[in-house]
Design brief:
51% helix, mainly alpha, 434 Repressor (Amino-terminal Domain), 134 residues, HTH cro/C1-type domain-containing protein, two-stranded antiparallel sheet, 2 domains
Length: 134
């Protein structure tokens, strides 16, 4: 894309008077950088992604409230992780992490295991143990 064609659509950054650095070509065809306030397709994709994440967080919160899953599931969603990422952070197999999603299994976890989860979510063990939905 040419420097003068860099999109300046209203985007997520334009509300904060910020600009994104992008690559473009100058009049000689050499690569250079340019500033963009946004690009509509990118803004739509990002908004959809954020909406989907927010929906997954709300579902996880409701499931914790209904005692269907443990707080680990909720904090995993809030931290924008999936089971594979969380398993690598806590150093456990994915099947074991999935097992810890069960409220009865979660209730029996040691503080050593809970500490791994809490550190991964950047919260305290008490916050993890005593998570209450409102």
């Amino acid at each position: 894309m040419k420097q003068e064609e860099v999109p300046q659509d209203k985007g997520n950054l334009s509300n904060k008077n910020m600009k994104e650095l992008v690559y473009a070509t100058d009049e000689k065809g050499n690569y250079t950088t340019a500033l963009s306030t946004g690009w509509e397709p990118k803004t739509i994709a990002l908004t959809n992604s954020i909406d989907e994440i927010s929906e997954r967080i709300a579902i996880a919160k409701e499931q914790v409230k209904n005692n269907e899953v443990s707080p680990i599931c909720y904090f995993m969603e809030v931290s924008r992780m999936d089971i594979g990422v969380l398993a690598s952070y806590v150093g456990m197999w994915q099947w074991r992490v999935k097992r810890h999603f069960k409220p009865k299994v979660f209730a029996g976890l040691s503080d050593t295991i809970l500490k791994k989860y809490a550190e991964s979510f950047n919260i305290s063990i008490e916050e993890l143990k005593n998570f209450k939905t409102k």
